[in-house]
């Protein structure tokens, strides 16, 4: 028994000798109040050390906004003769975006050495419901400030206009000290979208749930759904600095205000998009949805051969004007028709797209005659009535005069030498005895004319070769001609964008439309097929270089980003020059 006791005492002494140095080790760690939080919640971070350190350096807190801190606290106590020391630096953070965020390492110097904390990962989700405390300032702000999404139609048809208004409601005692900042912006992946520019935010009077409120319209957006079924509108989240009165007063008796940082969100809204009805859909329907007028116009109906005239196919009205193709002109084969020039004059407001789109054809007749131009039809779906409408253009007769005939007779006219006198004769008699006459050699062979004709080819050859070289030197090569033609085509498509180069929003809208129209004309890509993968695959299949393809896709992405990011005049001019260069390169290859 005594032997066992001695063995146990030996082991206790040995373990004490081993772990005694560990008890005195330096500890420096980062602690968070929670590992998962909503976008509208706050996070507490404590950097705790068990010895007094110097030169504490916090991390940069990427993805967070510092709402409070650093608050320093020191705890030094003695329990049963043992000293316990703790020093901490506390921060209160507010997340700025969703996703997994990392709190990087903090550093401190203790006992002449640098110590670092371990990085901490935090998962940030969408805004969540926070427990309500009637006595808290946050509860008071929450009850008197609301961010609301107003949707004009929750059950639209495919390609029907939907208007979205984001409104910030607030009332006394809440006041907004400065303009809110967006933390989360909806992207509208399954929609064609256009933000309506608001020149200046204004506070107006309105009612919310039957009670009077101040309201600020934060954003106006027009959408055209490109898919059917249930489509989600991503939430808009704002960070608002609100002011609330306190029970304290300053020297002059005015109530002291307290500033509160509040994150408000609209939450997710769902649309149920209906497909267009199949019953009654015309065969020539190309996806037009709205209320339109259609017409075909000619600038002249009487002209000379080799002169040109213009035919214009025009659609005006309200609807998805940028999202469908115009019908094609049908002409006789004997008329030479050039590729049409597409023009758009479309404005987007809360009523949707309004204006006109048209294709201008240049036509050149080669022969005289009367050419009928058959009527063409245009069909569209009217979502107000729920029915299809079809408009037929009128027909035209183009009179071409003073030109060659389309068909000429090759039969020789009768003459006295080929008319047979006998009415019953079917064949002419063969003359059996020829009346040959000998050639007088002395009149031509060896004469001046003979030698002149003999030397003429050599003289022409000696003169013609330098002449052809001179002409070839003055004539631009084929590659140069193709480059000039491609450059003219690029500038034709980008003409509207160049006119609006001073207006960033209209410029990028016109630039994006020009790039889309070019792809439709050259690669026959329909509007609903415009996506990054489709464009890359199609261009690479047509032999376009990878660098040029990536530049084209990057330019489209620049147009999309420019709606939400500021752009300088230098960047706008650079994007325009890049567009001219890229379309020129594409057209040379295509």
Summarize the structure.
The chain has 590 residues and is of the alpha+beta class.
What do these coordinates show?
- The protein has 590 residues and is an alpha+beta fold.
- The protein has four domains: 23-125, Sandwich (Immunoglobulin-like); 137-273; 290-401, Immunoglobulin-like (Sandwich), CATH 2.60.40.740; 478-589, Four Helix Bundle (Hemerythrin (Met), subunit A) (Up-down Bundle).
- Helices cover 25% and strands 38% of the residues.
- It has nine helices and 31 strands.
- The strands form nine sheets. Strands 11, 12, 15, 16 and 17 form a five-stranded antiparallel sheet that branches. Strands 22, 24, 25, 26 and 27 form a five-stranded antiparallel sheet that branches.
- The longest helix has 27 residues, at 448-474.
- The chain is elongated.
- The termini are far apart.
- 22% of the residues are buried.
- Residues 15-23 and 408-430 have low confidence and may be disordered.
Q: What multimeric state do the chains show? A: single chain
Describe the largest sheet.
Answer: 5 strands, antiparallel
Number of DSSP-assigned strands: 31
N-to-C span: 100 Å
Percentage of residues in DSSP E strands: 35-45%
C-alpha-based Rg, rounded:
42 Å
What count of structural domains?
Answer: 4
Low-confidence stretches: 15-23, 408-430
Helix residue percentage: 10-25%
Shape: elongated
Backbone structural class = alpha+beta
| Average pLDDT, all residues | 80
Number of contiguous helices: 9
């Amino acid at each position: 028994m005594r032997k066992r006791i001695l063995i146990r005492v030996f082991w206790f002494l040995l373990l004490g000798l081993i772990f005694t140095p560990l008890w005195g080790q330096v500890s420096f760690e980062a602690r968070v109040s929670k590992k998962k939080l909503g976008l509208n919640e706050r996070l507490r971070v404590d950097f705790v050390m068990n010895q007094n350190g110097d030169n504490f350096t916090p991390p940069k807190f990427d993805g967070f906004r510092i709402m409070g801190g650093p608050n320093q606290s020191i705890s030094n106590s003695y329990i049963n003769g043992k000293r316990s020391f703790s020093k901490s630096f506390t921060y209160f953070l507010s997340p700025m975006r969703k996703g997994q965020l990392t709190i990087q390492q903090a550093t401190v110097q203790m006992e002449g050495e640098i110590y670092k904390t371990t990085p901490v990962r935090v998962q940030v989700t969408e805004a969540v419901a926070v427990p309500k405390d009637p006595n808290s300032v946050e509860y008071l702000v929450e009850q008197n400030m609301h961010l609301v999404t107003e949707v004009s139609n929750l059950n639209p048809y495919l390609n029907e206009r939907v208007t979205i208004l984001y409104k910030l409601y607030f009332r006394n005692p809440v006041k907004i000290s400065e303009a809110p900042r967006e933390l989360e912006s909806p992207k509208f992946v399954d929609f064609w979208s256009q933000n309506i520019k608001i020149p200046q935010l204004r506070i107006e009077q309105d009612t919310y749930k039957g009670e009077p409120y101040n309201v600020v319209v934060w954003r106006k957006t027009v959408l055209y759904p490109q898919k059917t079924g249930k489509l989600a509108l991503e939430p808009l989240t704002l960070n608002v600095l609100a002011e609330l009165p306190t029970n304290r007063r300053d020297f002059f008796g005015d109530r002291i205000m307290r500033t509160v940082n509040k994150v408000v969100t609209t939450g997710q809204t769902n649309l149920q998009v209906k497909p267009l009805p199949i019953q009654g859909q015309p065969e020539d329907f190309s996806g037009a949805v709205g209320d339109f007028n259609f017409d075909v116009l000619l600038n002249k109906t009487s002209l000379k051969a080799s002169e040109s005239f213009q035919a214009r196919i025009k659609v005006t009205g309200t609807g998805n004007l940028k999202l469908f193709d115009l019908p094609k002109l049908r002409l006789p084969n004997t008329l030479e028709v050039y590729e049409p020039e597409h023009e758009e004059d479309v404005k987007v407001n809360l009523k949707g797209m309004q204006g006109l789109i048209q294709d201008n054809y240049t036509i050149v007749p080669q022969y005289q005659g009367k050419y009928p131009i058959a009527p063409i039809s245009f069909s569209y779906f009217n979502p107000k009535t729920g029915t299809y409408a079809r408009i037929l253009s009128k027909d035209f007769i183009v009179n071409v005069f003073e030109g060659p005939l389309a068909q000429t007779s090759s039969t020789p006219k009768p003459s006295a030498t080929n008319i047979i006198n006998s009415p019953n004769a079917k064949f002419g008699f063969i003359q059996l005895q020829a009346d040959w006459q000998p050639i007088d050699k002395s009149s031509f062979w060896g004469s001046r004319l003979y030698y002149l004709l003999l030397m003429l080819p050599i003289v022409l050859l000696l003169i013609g070769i330098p002449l052809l070289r001179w002409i070839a030197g003055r004539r631009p090569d084929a590659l140069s001609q193709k480059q000039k033609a491609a450059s003219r085509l690029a500038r034709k498509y980008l003409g509207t964008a160049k006119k609006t180069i001073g207006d960033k929003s209209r410029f990028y809208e016109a630039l994006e439309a020009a790039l889309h129209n070019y792809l439709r004309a050259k690669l026959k890509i329909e509007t609903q097929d415009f996506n990054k993968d489709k464009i890359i695959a199609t261009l690479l299949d047509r032999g376009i270089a990878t660098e040029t393809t990536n530049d084209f896709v990057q330019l489209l992405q620049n147009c999309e980003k420019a709606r939400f990011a500021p752009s300088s005049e230098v960047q706008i001019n650079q994007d325009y020059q890049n567009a001219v260069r890229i379309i020129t390169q594409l057209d040379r290859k295509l």
